[in-house]
Amino acid sequence: MNKRALATALLLAALTCMGLTGCNDTKTELNTPTYTTGIPATELSSKAFKAKFPSQYASYMKNNESEIMTEYKGSVAYHKNDNVNPLPNGFKNAQPYLKNLWLGYPFMYEYNEPRGHTYAVHDFVNIDRLDSFSPDGKGHMPATCWNCKTPRMMQWVAKYGNDFWSKDVNTFRSKDMVTEEEAISCSTCHDPGTMQLRPYSEPLKDWLARSGQDWNKISRNEKRTLMCAQCHVEYYFTAKGNGPLLRPVFPWDLGKSADACYEYYKKHGVKNAKGEETPFYDWVHAASKVPMIKIQHPDYETFQDGPHGAAGVSCADCHMQFVREDGKKVSSHWMTSPMKDKEMRACRQCHADKTPEFLRNRVHYIQERTFAQLLEAERHSVKAHEAVRLANEWTGEKDANYDALMAEAREMVRKGQLYWDYVSAENSIGFHNPTKQLNNLMVSYEASQKAIDLAQQATKYGISPKLAGPIEKIVPPILEMSRELQQDAEFLKMNPWTKLLPVKPKAPRVWKGQERVDSMGNSMDNSMKANPAM
Ligand code: HEC
Ligand code: HEC
Ligand code: HEC
Ligand code: HEC
To answer: How far apart (Å, rounded) are the C-alpha atoms in residues 263 and 15?
Structure first.
């Protein structure tokens, strides 16, 4: 960030702050306050900090609130594809085609709206993306997923080094490995002994080293953002032959935009026989057979060159606003939507001249338009997959350049969905960077349209009649899908796309949350000793 922008932001904050409170703003101090706590460096539970920091502890516990919704976001963990059922399972502003777009990838089983940090372990061990049905007890996901759920990571990485990542996720699933109390907690962001901000997330530390940045020389304001960039970012897991297997990496070497991401993933896949890097992919789409990228919550990347990020505002300014308690300024640790506050106080620290209604309406203005275009780009991505699927199967007359046209069509399907997902997986529905997100959706739409055009051309327009009309008629949204339903051949026949999935063999549930269960669903208390893959 340039110095002038920072000075402007700080001045703005200081000026408005004077108006509000006649303040000695902690933000104008150079460093986060230092304490001597006597709390050991290995402490993982927030409770241990309660006596020393009652205020921060109390506001952190508000992250347990999981009922309040805003117009587009909020904290009810509803299924993000379900715009049919009411809360708590579905919500009016959900995206109906998510399960279609992730067909064949565990995200199709379950994907929910995020809620407070205190739920991170609970929600993780209960999500259907982890396999709870495999006879060997494995979760069929790498242990890497734990990176953003618990500070216990620090101990696991110390113990196993780079062997940690490729262990099965369920190796660490039971309560004797990690408890719900040890979900994202004080030591995720603070050195317990001094309460200085310090990163624990391996991929962020890797990035700082790779980009030549020294944590001790980074400004306080930037640290107030980078704490969140430990997790609220796009990442991938190292492919075979490219370094420590399945270690998490932030793909920022070419930049933090969707364009940079798209270019980056043209490499970084497994090495081929000649020792060259192939394109990276997360999975192969079950309908179009295109190797796809799943983008994950690029909140930091989106925000950093938006109106606020570029002006030097930090995540904490809006999501951890300063509050006054007993004459002291403390940071609210209720890290949630600033829109839950009727008075929009987080915003009015700086925009003191605006009414809460004005600010709320500005946010909604951006979100309404972004969400409408998001749904359009989403429908078009589905159509692009269907066009390529039809063209893959086409047995009629083909264009002389069929193979080349189809290769380009597949690339455009991948591109269209990547740009859409950059916006879909981002958590602010456009607010963190309105211009960038609308641009990404336009690029997405264009790429998907190109895929549709090329697939038709490759089949000499033979598939065109099958693509005519609204996409909902051709490929209806998949409302329900789970690991259990994939064992039901009759169920899979009900949607033209679930029909394309393999039927899984009937198998009983072997995990319920953090407990191993027998085929009757009863807890097997001593199961921990029989932990898989240890
Ligand atoms: C996700 C990261 C994160 C977590 C988790 C977290 N904090 Fe903080 N904390 C911050 C940030 C960011 C600041 C602001 C630092 C600054 O302004 O320089 C902060 C500031 C503080 C401060 C300095 C005074 C103040 O209020 O600004 C204290 C004390 C503190 N946190 C205690 C805690 C305690 C206790 C917990 C656990 C209950 C906790 N924090 C959990 C990120 C976190
Ligand atoms: C260790 C990883 C990690 C860090 C660091 C982190 N988050 Fe999160 N955040 C998560 C996860 C995981 C969830 C979803 C938890 C769930 O749904 O169970 C989440 C959820 C949220 C939510 C949604 C809360 C709600 O009520 O709906 C907000 C807002 C948020 N984080 C903001 C922040 C901010 C701001 C920071 C930095 C001060 C931060 N996070 C740091 C991992 C992290
Ligand atoms: C200028 C204020 C502002 C800044 C700075 C900001 N955000 Fe946000 N953020 C918002 C608003 C407004 C929303 C939309 C909330 C809503 O619709 O309820 C939001 C939404 C979110 C959500 C989803 C909340 C939910 O209820 O599920 C997350 C997570 C989040 N932001 C993380 C971050 C992170 C991480 C950063 C820094 C990289 C950041 N934000 C910077 C204002 C801000
Ligand atoms: C720490 C100070 C700060 C906070 C907190 C803050 N803003 Fe801003 N805001 C700025 C700055 C700086 C700019 C860009 C320069 C300008 O327009 O003055 C800006 C610009 C804006 C704009 C115009 C750009 C756009 O995106 O359309 C809107 C709208 C806005 N802010 C709304 C909000 C809302 C809503 C919140 C609370 C969720 C908020 N701001 C919180 C400092 C802040």
So the answer is: 42
